[in-house]
Amino acid sequence: MPTEGFDRSDPAGRAWVHEAIRKVQADANRSADTHLHVFPLPAEWGIDLYLKDESVHPTGSLKHRLARSLFLYGLCNGWIGAETTIIEASSGSTAVSEAFFARMLGLPFVAVMPRSTSQEKVDLITFYGGRCHFVDSPATMYAEAQRLADETGGHYLDQFTYAERATDWRGNNNIAESIFEQLSHERHPVPAWIVVGAGTGGTSATIGRYLRYQRHDTRLLVVDPENSAFYPGFCETDDTVTTLVPSRIEGIGRQRVEPSFHASVVDAMMSVPDAASIAAARWCSARTGLSVGGSTGTALWGALHQIAAMRAAGETGSVVTLICDGGERYTRTYFDDTWLAAQGIDIAPCLATLETFADTGEWGDVLSPCDG
User: Fold this and answer.
1) Which residues in the chain show pLDDT less than 50?
2) How far apart are the first and last CA of the chain?
3) Count of beta carbons in the 10 Å neighbourhood of residue 77
4) How far, CA to CA in Å, does 153 sit from each of 6, 81, 96?
5) pLDDT of residue 118
6) What is the mean pLDDT of the chain?
7) Which CATH number applies to 62-164?
8) 332 and 118 Cβ atoms separated by less than 8 Å
9) What is d(CA 297, CA 322) in angstroms, rounded to the nearest whole number?
10) Could you tell me how many helices (H) and strands (E) the chain has, helices first?
């Protein structure tokens, strides 16, 4: 909640909020849209794969959109004033983007983060003037963020609760509307599938609702890394599912089903092994020249799996997934062979699967998605 004694009717305070909203909206005008890259596939397959490059946002990830929306939501709800300390629980990229907006508005920012968060993300948060507050267990960061907000009289942005409602899913240049506008002159302008990670649940909720609102036949596949709760929760129709071990794929794997995740707008889910996520991230970077992170690898693995299934069924069309952030944030983890060896991760079999797919369009033995 906002600082105690924050007077929402004070003219000076209202003027500050008006100016803060203008600054955040100006950022949207400068950076809201992102590139839609064509992934190289044989034209004769009749299937096109597109990568929506969210890494080109000013703070380098898909979370820039979410951070902007959360700040606007807090400002317009009267929760953020000129002296409000901003608190967030995050595994990294959201906090990087929120630190950027907090600095833009001259507000102090504290990120409550797992101690295992990549050093590259920690460095970016401090670069934007934020402070990192570490916890040993990712499951405790929610309560710790709320405690700090209560202690400072600040505002806990709470991305995991508000992600699904802070963004206008009907349009207003959200990510779904942007995808369809950019596909409008392609040979398959309405994609057969859009593939995204779970994360907060906000992106899948926005896209899933938009697809229904616009009456598109596009289906939504949500991919989930190992040790994350979304996939078992979806398959068991149980949003109380938790996992004991945290995910190694930062940004999308969660130990609980987050409040912003709405399974009812998801058509299918797939669980992706960490070795596959990392192999796909490296393979994509080598194939396209675009450096991508582990969560992009997770999504790409799911997208390629669906393309193989479409080919097997004799279908044509387009598939869209996201570049969530760049690989430069993971040079000491996913792109470090020493780190992989220490984690006991062997990506060679998954790289072989990807190379076979590139040569033949076939996938081989894989787990089928859990259909809704």
Assistant:
1) 1-5, 366-368, 370-372
2) 37
3) 13
4) 10, 11, 22
5) 82
6) 92
7) 3.40.50.1100
8) yes
9) 10
10) 13, 11
- Record the tokens describing residue 201, joined without a space: 């649940």
Do the domains 30-61+169-365 and 62-164 sit in the same CATH topology, yes or no? Answer: yes
Burial level of 207, CB count in 10 A (0-12/13-18/19+)?
buried
**Burial classification of residue 295, based on how many CB atoms lie within 10 Å of its CB (0-12 exposed, 13-18 middle, 19 or more buried):** buried
Retrieve residue 13's tokens.
């305070």
| Angle, vertex CA 139, rays to CA 133 and CA 141, nearest 5 | 25
pLDDT at 366: 47
Q: What's the one-letter identity of residue 191?
A: P
Instruction: Give me the architecture of the 30-61+169-365 domain, per CATH.
Output: 3-Layer(aba) Sandwich (3.40)
Q: How many residues does the chain have?
A: 372
pTM of the model: 0.91
In angstroms, the Cα distances linking 316 to 116, 190, 255, 310 are 42, 12, 36, 7
What are the domain boundaries of the chain?
A: 30-61+169-365, 62-164
C-alpha span between 207 and 192 (Å, rounded): 13
Query: Which of the 8 DSSP states describes residue 322?
Result: E
Amino acid identity, position 80: I
Whole-Å CA distances, 142 to 39, 87, 347: 37, 10, 33
Q: What is the per-residue pLDDT for 21? A: 95
